[in-house]
C-alpha cells in the first residue's frame, strides 16, 4: 500500500471512540468503499467509464427494488427533485441538502454540507486528487435510465455548497 493510501485510510478511519454497526459505522464503511473504488478506477485508467458502469448497475437495482413507481418526469429538473426525494425517503442520502434549477437544457444543482459523500470528496480535494461527484454520476445516470436523456456533468465549485452543472448532450 502506498504511503498516500495509508495516510488516506488513516484519515478516513479517524474517529472518537469505537464505531459500532450503527449508521455512523455504515457511513465509515461507505467512505472506505468509495475511496477505494475511486482509487481503483483511477488505476484502471478510465474513471468516468468505470464509475458510470458501477453507478448504472447499482442504480438500476436500487430503483427496481426501492423505487418501482418512480418514472421520472418530462422536466429533467423535476425528475432530479423527485429522485432526490425518493432517495431521501429510502435513506440513501439526505435529500433536503440539494436544490435544483433548470435553464433550457442545463440543470444546476447545489449540494450542501450534509452530503453523504462529502468527507470522501474533501479528502480527495485535500490530497490534490480530482473530485468525482458520486451524486452527479447518480443524477446523470437516473436521467439516462428514466428519461432516456444523456447529460454530461461538471463540478463547477467544490465547497459550501458544491455546485454541479448538468448539460443535455446528443445521444452517443
Order of helices and strands: HHHHEEHHEE
Radius of gyration: 16 Å
The number of domains: 1
Give the oligomeric state: single chain
Strand order of the largest sheet: 1-2-4-3
Number of strands: 4
In CATH terms, what is the architecture?
A: Alpha-Beta Complex
Strand content: 15-25%
The largest β sheet comes out as: 4 strands, antiparallel
Report on this structure.
This protein has 172 residues and is of the alpha+beta class. It has one domain: Alpha-Beta Complex (H-NOX domain). The protein is built from six helices and four strands. A four-stranded antiparallel sheet has the order 1-2-4-3, with helices on one face. Helix 2 (23-44) runs antiparallel to helix 3 (47-66) and helix 4 (76-89) crosses helix 6. The radius of gyration is 16 Å and the shape is globular. The chain starts with a helix and ends with a strand. The mean pLDDT is 83.
Quick overview of this protein structure:
The protein is of the alpha+beta class and 172 residues long.
Secondary-structure map:
Elements: H1 3-13, H2 23-44, H3 47-66, H4 76-89, E1 98-103, E2 106-111, H5 118-126, H6 134-147, E3 150-157, E4 162-169
Antiparallel strand pairs: 1-2, 2-4, 3-4
Helix pairs in contact: 2-3, 3-6, 4-6
Kindly list the characteristics that best describe this protein.
single chain; 172 residues; alpha+beta; H-NOX domain; four-stranded antiparallel beta sheet
Amino acid at each position: 500500500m502506498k504511503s498516500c493510501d495509508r495516510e488516506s485510510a488513516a484519515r478516513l478511519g479517524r474517529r472518537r471512540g469505537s464505531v459500532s454497526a450503527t449508521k455512523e459505522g455504515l457511513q465509515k464503511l461507505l467512505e472506505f468503499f468509495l475511496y477505494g473504488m475511486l482509487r481503483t478506477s483511477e488505476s484502471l485508467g478510465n474513471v468516468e467509464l468505470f464509475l458510470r458502469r458501477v453507478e448504472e448497475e447499482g442504480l438500476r437495482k436500487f430503483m427496481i427494488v426501492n423505487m418501482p413507481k418512480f418514472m421520472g418526469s418530462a422536466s429533467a429538473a423535476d425528475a432530479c427533485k423527485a429522485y432526490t426525494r425518493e432517495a431521501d425517503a429510502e435513506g440513501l442520502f439526505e435529500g433536503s441538502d440539494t436544490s435544483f434549477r433548470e435553464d433550457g437544457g442545463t440543470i444546476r444543482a447545489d449540494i450542501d454540507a450534509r452530503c453523504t459523500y462529502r468527507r470522501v470528496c474533501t479528502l480527495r480535494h485535500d490530497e490534490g486528487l480530482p473530485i468525482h461527484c458520486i451524486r452527479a454520476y447518480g443524477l446523470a445516470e437516473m436521467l439516462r435510465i428514466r428519461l432516456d436523456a444523456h447529460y454530461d456533468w461538471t463540478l463547477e465549485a467544490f465547497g459550501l455548497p458544491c455546485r454541479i452543472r448538468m448539460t443535455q448532450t446528443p445521444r452517443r
